[in-house]
Amino acid sequence: MKIGYYPGCSLHASSAFYDVQTKKVFKHLGIDLVEIEDWNCCGATSACKTDAFLSIALPARNIGIADASGLDELLVPCSSCYSRTLVSQKVLADNQDLRDSINAELTKKVSGRVKILSILELILRRVNAQDFPEKLKNKLDGFKPACYYGCLLTRFPYDVEVPDNVENPQGMDIICEKIGAKPVDWNYKTDCCGASATVNDTDVALRLMSKIMKDAIARGANCLVTTCPMCQLNLDAYQDKVREKYGIQQRLPVYFITELLGLALGISGRELQIDRHLIDAEGLLKEIKQV
After folding, report:
1. pLDDT exceeding 70 applies to what percent of the chain?
2. Angle CA(153)–CA(35)–CA(43) in degrees, nearest 5?
3. What is the Rg, in whole angstroms, of the alpha carbon atoms belonging to the chain?
4. Choices 3.40.50.300, 3.10.200.10, 3.40.50.11810, 3.40.30.10: CATH for 136-287
5. pTM for the complete prediction?
6. What angle do CA 142, 147, 152 make, to 5 degrees?
7. How buried is residue 91: exposed, middle or buried, by Cβ count under 10 Å (0-12/13-18/19+)?
């Protein structure tokens, strides 16, 4: 099965190992990801703060490329890219004049034929398939993750069809349970980590991350798991600063869902590039004999 693939900027830069994992995991699940040609930045969170038109037009160009590819679905692993792309598609579907205006400047026009998928949607489709149990090589029963969805998978600036409960999303929890992990029930699964405020308002971002860390630890989690490159990077890169400022003793590795799923499918930690984390993520694997 072939599905279109939009990695976005983070997966070709600071979160390049997420790109590697995503391709490996879906190959094991029988899905070939076809990266759309000549894609551009979707604008992420910055375009919508500065220019409403660009926030729609930038992802629209990628949608047009995907529409013209002949593929029926487009996987967007990054939570920010997924939000921007899904919102752009829906805004253009609801606004003929804007769609015509943008299409007039595009070589490949937006038709709206391609379905935009989050990484959780596509993984859930496969883990719920009848043949999934035979693909499992390891049961991750030593993992107790706090499934951290963040704000971008649950809060959209436009009325779009959301494939999960926005108040208490369950997709990642279901995936973890399917591979033998024991996700904890906690209060901060949809809270903001501060996103780019780590740059211009660091104290606020550190305070937000401290709440996430404290609750996950209090609920017995031994790791965090997410789909968002910004959330993963923030909680990985700034965790020691958060711990020092707020008196948190414990460290928590911050995994992408592709890492846990990849381990369950028998892909080694080194193949998944788990050694590239800033907060040690291999120690827990050794502790629960996953390496």
Report:
1. 99
2. 45
3. 19
4. 3.40.50.11810
5. 0.96
6. 160
7. buried
